[in-house]
């Protein structure tokens, strides 16, 4: 309650943030499917891209998404230990940890880039995280397409 | 056979590239036979008027080293393009922006504040900073070139014909350049425009260290932190950050021969768009690869945090022309 009270004092700077969401085929993708079939409410601002494994996501894809005008990038995968390919999500975790540190050095707000684990049964978590991230990004300026200048 | 008229122009540079040319040893006589220097301020007494006095297109080979940092660098680059038939970007700064381009980061403070006030070794009670124009008592004005907003590579401002990377370009590379010049003066043929005069593959191909079947490492070290480095085995499994897997070959693996990890001064290979991101991708997937299963997030994070400055580590020479340098900072919005 207090957080919504505090938020209402801040002005909304971006009514319609765009989020590129990468889902792994085996857990997060199934979780998103379940959210759909269970008719859970979640914002339409997320553009899902399904890939076979979270470790398939090259850091370059994240940067290109930002340069193409995404306001945020959300990467989801199986929980540690649950990966369909055994250790793909460990690699994704290490990779994205350094990438988020790099983005922080450049001055990109950490709210714009998130890594989350969503299993095939966690439809509610899927809805919660997407809603949360869209809400967060509404209070940031739209991210400039094409970057600097 | 007429000598090739050669001009060597400097931008924001440490002049290490000039020294590298002089490092050619006896091959320098061949350079002397081939080239007539019409402009090279580091080596001989030349002024900008000497370059301006030449006709357009009169210079056969124009070599530019250093980044585009000030309005003077930009002006010199444009003059060189006009006067020279062929322009060569020489060294990491002219190729990718180099170390000067690390200043393009959207820091909270400006470079001037940092250098002239906040550096701990700086004693500047009056807050003196270089000014663009200063008026003397006599009424005359003294001027200094203007700092551009961003430091950039040479091809961000003029058309560049050939690229010679390296910080500085190593002797084997400069020998290659001399051979290209020799062929040009004998037959009049040049390689296709846009050629990078260096190797094609990655550094790993010419580094003689033995690579194991499976590369895995458990921590990052600085070379001075480890007691013993095996001189025959790949550096990465020994925990030393080496940019070799994503870096262009051609330098002769000078650094890795001396137990020092590659720092990436040759820039990315032709297939790589962003040097640092590819290196992050490669290095992190090798970290703890044989034991990662069953580790917790905290354990993994602890190891990754051993790289204190990913930007300085992975983009030491290529930040100015990288993909991530195009991202804008949220701090600018305020």
Q: What attributes does this structure have?
A:
heterodimer, A: 149 residues, alpha/beta, Rossmann fold, 5 helices, 42% helix, B: 334 residues, 3 domains, five-stranded parallel sheet, two-stranded antiparallel sheet, 12 helices, 9 strands, globular
Please give the structural blueprint:
The complex is a heterodimer of chains A (149) and B (334).
Chain A: H1 2-9, E1 19-24, H2 28-37, E2 46-51, H3 59-67, E3 72-77, H4 88-106, E4 113-117, H5 123-138
Parallel strand pairs in A: 1-2, 1-3, 3-4
Helix pairs in contact in A: 2-5
Chain B: E1 4-10, H1 16-22, H2 28-34, E2 35-39, H3 48-52, E3 59-65, E4 68-70, H4 71-83, E5 84-90, H5 92-96, H6 111-118, E6 133-135, E7 141-143, E8 147-152, E9 162-164, H7 171-187, H8 203-206, H9 254-257, H10 275-286, H11 297-304, H12 310-314
Parallel strand pairs in B: 1-2, 1-3, 3-5, 5-9
Antiparallel strand pairs in B: 4-8, 6-7
Weakly predicted, low-confidence segments of chain A: none
- The Cα radius of gyration of chain B reads 22 Å
Our estimate of the beta-strand percent of chain A is: 15-25%
Question: From the coordinates shown, what is the CATH architecture of the largest domain in chain B?
Answer: 3-Layer(aba) Sandwich
Number of folding domains of chain B?
3
Total helices of chain B: the number is 12
Q: Shape of chain A, please?
A: globular
Largest interchain contact: A-B, 36 and 41 residues
Strand order of the largest sheet of chain B: 2-1-3-5-9
Give the full name of the CATH homologous superfamily of the largest domain in chain B: NADH:ubiquinone oxidoreductase-like, 20kDa subunit
Helix content of chain B: 25-40%
CATH class of the domain at 16-117 in chain A: Alpha Beta
Oligomeric composition of the shown chains: heterodimer
Output mean pLDDT of chain B.
89
Order of helices and strands of chain A: HEHEHEHEH
Q: What's the total count of β strands of chain A? A: 4
Work out the helicity level of chain A: 40-55%
CATH topology of the domain at 16-117 in chain A: Rossmann fold
How many DSSP E strands of chain B? Answer: 9
